[in-house]
Amino acid sequence: MEMNENHAVNVEVNGINNAEKDSLKRGADITYGIDDTPPWYLSIFMALQHYLTMIGAIVSIPFILTPALCMEDEDPSRGIIISTMIFVTGLVTYIQATWGCRLPIVQGGTISFLVPTLAILNLPQWKCPNKDVIASMNSDEKSELWQIRMRELSGAIAVSALFQVFIGYTGLVGKLLKVITPLTIVPTVSLVGLTLFSHASDTASKHWGIAVVTIILMTLFSQAMTEIQVPTFKYRKGHGIQIGWFPLFKLFPVLLTIIIMWSLCAVLTVTDVLPEGHPARTDVRIRVLEDAAWFRVPYPGQFGIPTVTLAGVLGMMAGVLACTVESISYYPTVSQMCGAPPPPLHAINRGIGTEGLGTVLAGLWGSGNGTNTFGENVGAIGVTKVGSRRVIQWAAIIMILQGVLNKFGAAFIMIPDPVVGGIFCIMFGMIAAFGLSNLQYVDIRSARNLYILGLSIFFPLVLCLWLKEHPDFIQTGNKTLDSTLSVLLGTSILVGGCLGCVLDNLLPGTPEERGLIAWSKEMALEVNETSTDGIATSTFDFPYGMQVLKRYRWTRYVPFLPTYKMKL
User: Contact at 8 Å (CB) between 492 and 195?
Assistant: First the structure.
């Protein structure tokens, strides 16, 4: 961790151009800017906020992943997977904040990888046996049943992420985004949520009453009660500890909803309102917690050496592309929130490359997922007005420590299924809405755009559903090619994204109609750095070794180094 001791972002905005003025004004209303270092005790407290913001989203992934892996609900290994995800999230977050793009962002598991994951596991060779068959297996056979599938996913995730590493560290990100237009992003991102609707339905239908109450509480906390604040203690520079007001409902709507509904299910369990074995009972998976070890350090290859197949790698590429575009869109927003200047091209290159490296590590560690920028934590910066890089570094350390506490990860597996189902209904819907929000850049009244939008969203749903019901339809005579085509055509986000990209780039349309002008302003990757000793350079410099880098002229041509001089 670098040892800056600044405590404010105070800048003069007279006598500079509009772009610089906008950049410097960014830090006017924040408590701690990106390069500021709060006292360690406050840093830990604020880091806990980021940790709690992240944990609600990351624990939902195994509820979809583990059943697809043929893992039983009572298997204590589900807790190991959660602990591994938290551990890798902390590790990659620290690397990203310290040596990557150096923005205060959290890198964690993402639902974008679930869509290709389910497409891979839907192949005939990976479909789960009947529950009766699984129940008749011994413990070793049950472990091998899901671990062989995890090894397939791990290899696919790690190898496909090398593409993200390549385009990031070689500086090809900007060129790639020239063909990835808003009408490419809309179907790619929105189909992530739309494709997973059956999983939300299956989980919520285990008790619709509890699921609906969960949705109601989540709606109240996140939409109707955001302006309601609770009294708390806060530290103000020069004034010491004071009583302040904390936006509890705005910051932790998911966590509050889970705690309340989990407690309600506990009451219904103790009073035997819910019958024995009901999925809404809090003791239905108590064995997971009892059998979990207290301490366990995740390590690469913990479930065996990853296997690599062409079908798996190409399928996972869809998740990698979706995460790349989504993360880049967050970088300018985070910079503005934490009082930093717009991120220069070398920081964006390094950020995407580091995210890809993090996904490689996630695959090797066996988390069953990749890494991506957490939108929840981006929102937390805007609410708390704390954009310090040091706080995120502390949060990363907390995640690493929690990742070795296996009991902690196992506890989250005990959240009742209907509660998770209610959360799914909201989370998946928000992901679909986030994708559709990119229509703000295009002319939605254009018949051309409506045609592309409708076809690129509807056709992938039809095709993927049909292929799921007819898994043996593709018969080329080559099993490898059959599997590859089945995964590619069965991954809705890949089919929709490619269809939208091809149609938008081939069908005639004006730049304004296609949204290219408005999109280029949002995704302005090229930043003209005219100063070598100002804030624009120092903010995104490495914490160590800058003097050495500046001595050599060749470092100006390396796209991911802070000394890189881009050609405008």
Answer: yes
User: E strands along 68-135, which residues?
Assistant: 107-108
d(CA 123, CA 490): 10
Of 435, 404, 441, 465, residue with least CA distance to 517: 441
Quick check: 34 and 387 in contact, CB under 8 A?
A: yes
Q: How many helices (H) and strands (E) does the chain have?
A: 27, 4
Higher pLDDT, 402 or 452: 452
Backbone angles phi, psi at 545, to 5 degrees: 85, 5
* Range of lowest pLDDT (95-104, 152-161, 470-479): 470-479
Distance CA 415, CA 75 (A): 14
User: Residue 499: helix, strand or coil by DSSP?
Assistant: helix
Residue 437, token pair as written in the block: 């929000």
Return the ∠ at Cα 344 (arms to 35 and 50), rounded to 5°: 45
Distance (Å, whole) CA 365 – CA 532: 39
Q: Residue 250 contacts by C-beta under 8 Å, 6 or more apart in sequence?
A: 222, 225, 226, 227, 383
Sign of CA dihedral 161, 165, 168, 172: negative
Are the beta carbons of 120 and 308 closer than 8 angstroms? no
Residues with Cβ within 8 Å of residue 399, at least 6 apart in sequence = 51, 54, 86, 87, 89, 90, 93
Q: What is the pLDDT of residue 567?
A: 56
pLDDT in tens, 278-313: 888 888 777 767 777 788 888 998 888 999 988 888
The position carrying tokens 């399928």 is 315
Going by the DSSP 8-state scheme, the letter that residue 220 receives in this structure is I
Q: Which residues contact 216 (CB under 8 A, 6 or more apart)?
A: none
Q: What is the pLDDT of residues 45-58, one digit of tens each?
A: 778 767 766 776 67
User: ∠ at Cα 68 (403, 499), nearest 5°?
Assistant: 105
- Residue in 101, 4, 126, 95 with CA at minimum distance from that of residue 327: 101
> What are 510's two structure tokens?
């004006």
Q: Which residues contact 66 (CB under 8 A, 6 or more apart)?
A: 75, 78, 81, 146
- In the chain, the amino acid numbered 102 is R
